[in-house]
Design goal:
alpha+beta, 251 residues, 5-stranded antiparallel β-sheet, 12 strands, globular
Length: 251
Amino acid sequence: MYKIPAETLFLGKNLVFVPECHSTNTLLSEMSAKSDLPEGTLVIADHQTAGRGQRGNQWVAQPGQNFTFSFLLKPKALAASLQFQLNMALSLGVLGYLQQKQLGRLRIKWPNDILVGDKKICGLLIENTLRGIFIDRSVVGIGLNVNQTDFALNSATSLALELNRPSVLPGELPLLLQQLEARLLEHHRGCLSQQKEEYLQHLYGYQQARTFVAGHGKFTGSIVGVSHEGRLQVEANGQLRHYGVQEIAFA
Ligand code: BTN
């Protein structure tokens, strides 16, 4: 089963395995509201019966085949308005893990899906609890498709499909956590512009003409950046527009 990783400083040092739960994000939020858990506490499940995704979507994964876990962060003095910095650092962490597996065509789809080509392999759900203008704690949920090979959606993929071989989940967890922690420590050291540059380098659709859907309808534009607050910056008809997560989607 899952072992406490020797390779990390804080991530996963307090590791809780549950065979089944509704959602590891929900479970960890409840646990951290009840007691003062150490930073990096990680809850991992073989099966979620009500896995949650971004924008109120469900996250469905076959039991025992994939990574479905959540961990606790206590960002020190990170303003709530700058929470997107965490999204960038963590997306780069997952990307780094997949790069180590020699996967090509890796992209980050804003805000924090990881794609191989046009297919999604991983999604992150980061839920913050605020104290005044600062983030008090973050629950970071990661759903990474590892050994599942059949999906209801044609737009999903997994490590097994990309590498043509299965992976041993307990063996892979420390490798993934190491990459995530390295990016968190880098963020903590203040490597913000470097992380943003890397994020943009891997951003799906960056500086390419694409069709989007927003409240004002369908339009063609090009992603030119992401603001400090994490809003997607899209140029269309010579105008720069900013969109929040619920406000725009690729058509
Ligand atoms: C998305 O792409 O929409 C985000 C998916 C996040 C799924 C993970 S699985 C572990 C954690 N627990 C949840 O209920 N959701 C996240």
